[in-house]
């Protein structure tokens, strides 16, 4: 248990190792790039990674992306986040003079083939060129200067212009015309897709897309006999609350979930602290905690700003409608016998709720940082002892 706590802390520790927004705030020349990282939530994605190189572009060169919608800018900028560490020295000493490197764009599932890789080539005369991977790639974007290096974890270098604007072209259909149920069915969440359709919750989801929507859809095998029995006991109003509990009315891609702390309001939230979820993560595993049960995100079915669809391994049970089993089940994987709350919880909607709970626990970070420093000292101490 203690070890688990330590592990958890060390994960928190490294997840918050740097803050790209804060780093770039010191450079007014990159303010457009920095704003776009925040608006597209790529900043969270960057902050939740361990080893990363960000290829920044100055304000003048960012003009070529102006006028694009946010989703397009996100696709273009994702190519500027390289999942490897390249300081100026390494850039100028690429093995054989050329290499392909993975970018964040490759991880979105939107890139066809190796469309999410960039080509880094040591050009003649000490110049380094960047371009899309692929035959006869143009290397129009070139290295300008080093901006910041943080150990061997984060490197920020300036390049002369956006690597390409061609990936920015919107895929069809656009997120607002996306057929959510068909994506869910393809992703193995047919029961959930049917539930949101028959209850009309799908309409609430669709109405939210424009302002941002994140859905955690339980996979078909999450609807076990016990769970189904409990769901059928609910009134139709409460069933709607449970289904709305599986969605956030904000766009929250994986990186944003990983860096979030404190309770997150769901579509079912009726006030601060009501129908909220907390997120914990460890490496690439992201878990949602309802206070009654925990579900793990099993895959990202779609991530195209402003819409994110995930599948999860359990039905999320809000503490407002379910109670936890008093005794732990003897077999680890057995479904614990839970019961619905007899007292009827009032359900209604209030948009102010999400604002209220968003600002709850920002004071968490400094405390963690302090513990982390202590932990780091402790670990260094351990290593020192082992080396003796
Ligand atoms: C860099 O990452 C390592 C783990 O890969 C971590 O232990 C270390 O604290 C990080 N350093 C900084 C400065 O973020
Ligand atoms: C990162 O820094 C920015 C600007 O200093 C701040 O607004 C933001 O809250 C910070 N993010 C985190 C996760 O600490
Ligand atoms: C570098 O080039 C040599 C000779 O063409 C080849 O054998 C080797 O695999 C290359 N190394 C890398 C890392 O591409
Ligand atoms: C990178 O692009 C250049 C120019 O198009 C090409 O010659 C080189 O082979 C590419 N490098 C890799 C690793 O594909
Ligand atoms: C969305 O997909 C589902 C399942 O494939 C289908 O039944 C439904 O008619 C589609 N809805 C629209 C609006 O096309």
Brief account:
The chain is an alpha+beta fold and 388 residues long. It has helices at residues 2-15, 20-25, 31-39, 42-47, 59-62, 70-78, 88-91, 104-107, 180-186, 190-199, 201-208, 225-233, 236-244, 254-259, 352-358, 364-387; strands at residues 52-56, 81-82, 98-102, 117-122, 128-132, 141-150, 154-159, 213-218, 247-248, 264-265, 276-282, 285-289, 294-304, 307-312, 322-323, 339-340.
List the helices and strands and how they pair.
Elements: H1 2-15, H2 20-25, H3 31-39, H4 42-47, E1 52-56, H5 59-62, H6 70-78, E2 81-82, H7 88-91, E3 98-102, H8 104-107, E4 117-122, E5 128-132, E6 141-150, E7 154-159, H9 180-186, H10 190-199, H11 201-208, E8 213-218, H12 225-233, H13 236-244, E9 247-248, H14 254-259, E10 264-265, E11 276-282, E12 285-289, E13 294-304, E14 307-312, E15 322-323, E16 339-340, H15 352-358, H16 364-387
Parallel strand pairs: 1-7, 8-14
Antiparallel strand pairs: 1-2, 3-4, 4-5, 5-6, 6-7, 8-9, 10-11, 11-12, 12-13, 13-14, 15-16
Helix pairs in contact: 1-16, 3-6, 9-10, 10-13
The structure holds 2-acetamido-2-deoxy-beta-D-glucopyranose (NAG) (5 copies).
Residues 98-100, 119, 121, 136-137, 139 line the site of one 2-acetamido-2-deoxy-beta-D-glucopyranose.
């Amino acid at each position: 248990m203690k070890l688990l706590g330590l592990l958890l802390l060390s994960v928190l520790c490294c997840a918050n190792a740097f803050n790209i927004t804060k780093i770039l705030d010191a450079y007014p020349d990159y303010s457009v790039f920095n704003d776009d990282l925040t608006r597209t939530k790529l900043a969270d994605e960057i902050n939740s990674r361990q080893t990363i190189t960000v290829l920044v572009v100055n304000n003048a060169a960012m003009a070529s992306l102006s006028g694009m919608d946010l989703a397009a800018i996100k696709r273009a900028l994702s190519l500027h986040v390289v999942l490897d560490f390249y300081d100026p020295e390494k850039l100028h000493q690429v093995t054989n003079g050329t290499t392909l490197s993975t970018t964040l764009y490759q991880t979105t599932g939107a890139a066809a083939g190796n469309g999410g890789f960039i080509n880094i080539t040591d050009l003649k005369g000490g110049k380094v060129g960047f371009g899309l991977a692929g035959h006869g790639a143009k290397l129009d974007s070139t290295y300008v200067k080093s901006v910041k290096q943080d150990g061997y974890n984060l490197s920020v270098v300036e390049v002369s212009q956006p690597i390409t604007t061609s990936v920015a072209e919107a895929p069809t259909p656009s997120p607002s015309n996306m057929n959510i149920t068909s994506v869910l069915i393809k992703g193995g969440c047919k029961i959930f897709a049917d539930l949101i359709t028959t209850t009309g919750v799908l309409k609430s989801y669709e109405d939210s897309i424009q302002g941002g929507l994140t859905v955690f859809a339980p996979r078909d095998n999450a609807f076990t006999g016990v769970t189904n029995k409990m769901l059928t006991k609910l009134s139709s109003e409460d069933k709607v609350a449970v289904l709305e509990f599986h969605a956030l009315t904000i766009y929250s891609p994986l990186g944003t979930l990983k860096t979030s702390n404190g309770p997150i309001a769901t579509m079912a939230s009726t006030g601060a602290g009501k129908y909220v979820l907390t997120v914990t993560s460890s490496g690439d595993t992201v878990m949602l905690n309802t206070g009654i049960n925990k579900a793990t995100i099993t895959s990202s079915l779609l991530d195209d700003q402003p819409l994110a669809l995930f599948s999860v391994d359990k039905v999320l049970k809000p503490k407002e409608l379910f109670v936890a089993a008093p005794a732990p089940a003897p077999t680890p994987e057995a479904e614990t016998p839970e019961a619905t709350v007899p007292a009827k919880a009032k359900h209604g909607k209030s948009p102010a709720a999400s604002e209220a709970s968003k600002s709850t626990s920002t004071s968490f970070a400094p405390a963690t940082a302090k513990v982390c420093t202590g932990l780091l000292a402790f670990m260094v101490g351990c290593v020192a002892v082992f080396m003796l």
